[in-house]
Design brief:
By secondary structure, the protein is mainly alpha-helical. The chain contains eleven helices and four strands. Strands 1-2 form a two-stranded antiparallel sheet. The protein has a two-stranded antiparallel ribbon with strand order 3-4.
Length: about 200
């Protein structure tokens, strides 16, 4: 079984108490070829030599891609969605599995991933407060040079419009089925909820 690391790299990661799974294992878990897994690993390890990335480091790296805005709130949400076991760090496996799903998964799989991003407390529903928090984080990410400054009323109005279309039983929350059906049925809703990912992921 081939390890994703070369001999020297494997020795270094063992010292740091983390060794990624084999290339074959990650190919089974993702939509990537062995060559692509190795390429992605090399890029990941260049930024994260220990083979894992902590939240603060993740935020700093993510901020490099959005210099005009404040990426910290959104990157924190993104980190939490990838860090499934909530242990405060992301492994290469977690990173590449999320990347594979968002770039090559089915539309339903991608929508489920985006739903989980909005479902901040993991209870299976999106509340008004959760949606508002993500909307504000997205606008902070894009920055005032890209979009007008987001006012509280603007965020509340946006959330109200979403809930009017998705919360059909008016219970103040959106389930994953309602979320998926609404996004599949209405391109405008999909763009509103998933627009940040549309160009490369959906």
């Amino acid at each position: 079984m081939e390890n994703v690391l070369g001999d020297n790299e494997a020795e270094e990661v063992v010292i740091n108490r983390y060794v990624p799974e084999s290339v074959e294992s990650m190919c089974r878990q993702t939509h990537y070829t062995p060559r692509e897994v190795r390429m992605i690993y090399r890029a990941f390890k260049q930024e994260c030599p220990t083979g894992i990335v902590y939240e603060q480091q993740f935020k700093e790296l993510y901020s490099q891609y959005f210099p005009l805005g404040d990426a910290r709130p959104f990157s924190g949400l993104l980190f939490s969605n990838i860090d499934h076991n909530r242990n405060g760090w992301i492994t290469f496996e977690q990173f590449i599995c999320s990347m594979s799903l968002l770039t090559r998964g089915t539309l339903s799989e991608k929508l489920r991933w985006v739903f989980n991003l909005y479902d901040l407390n993991g209870d299976g529903f999106i509340s008004r407060d959760e949606l508002t928090n993500v909307v504000v984080a997205v606008h902070a990410l894009l920055g005032t040079h890209t979009l007008p400054t987001l006012l509280d009323n603007t965020a509340r109005n946006h959330v109200q419009r979403i809930f009017k279309k998705m919360d059909l039983d008016n219970d103040g929350r959106i389930g994953v089925e309602d979320f998926t059906e609404a996004c599949l049925a209405d391109p405008k809703i999909k763009a509103s909820m998933c627009g940040l990912f549309d160009s490369t992921m959906l």
